[in-house]
Amino acid sequence: MNLLHELRSAARGIRVQPTHSALVVGVLAAGFACTIFMLVIVHGFIVRPLPFAHPDALLHAGLADNHGGDSLDDVAGRDLRGLREHLAGVADVAGYQPATINLSDLGRPERFDGAIVTANLWNVLGVSPQLGRDFTREDERADAAAVVILSWSQWHQRYGGDP
Fold it and tell me: Residue 95's closest CA among 63, 119, 65, 70?
């Protein structure tokens, strides 16, 4: 009987002050949405492991700025080769550098966010292309022809999934 009295009182309050009630419902909905968003983020980045063969063995290295800055720059090519030689037999070293990629085939140039990577990056991550070939050491030479691996979505959007 007490619950019925409370429900009648709440319905009366909603009728008397509908804007205040709508504000309360909106604030509660925003709070629930933020909580669910944070739970999804925590699950996606912390609880669920990275989609690589050995995510606990991955490490990102950089060079410290000795000129008073506190940012890390990606390891330069010469330093990367030195790390590869120094860590040979202990660890596999791969590198990447975020870059803007311009594709100008098909008569319509487009700019994409991408990366310039070493030939062994996909092997280090334990993944391989779904179609086509992976990069080779010969692709890293300065005089080698340009080779690209497209994402699935870019392949379908730009080329219609045509192999």
Answer: 119
What value does the mean pLDDT take over residues 110-117?
Answer: 84
Q: Is the pTM of this model over 0.85?
A: no
Measure the CA–CA gap between 72 and 123, rounded to whole angstroms. Answer: 25
Residue 132: helix, strand or coil by DSSP?
Answer: coil
What pLDDT is stored for residue 70 in this prediction?
A: 40
CA distances in angstroms from 54 to 14, 49, 58, listed in the order given: 56, 9, 7
Which ranges of 17-76 does DSSP label H, i.e. alpha helix?
18-42
- Which among 112, 116, 158, 114 has a CA at the least distance from the CA of 135? 116
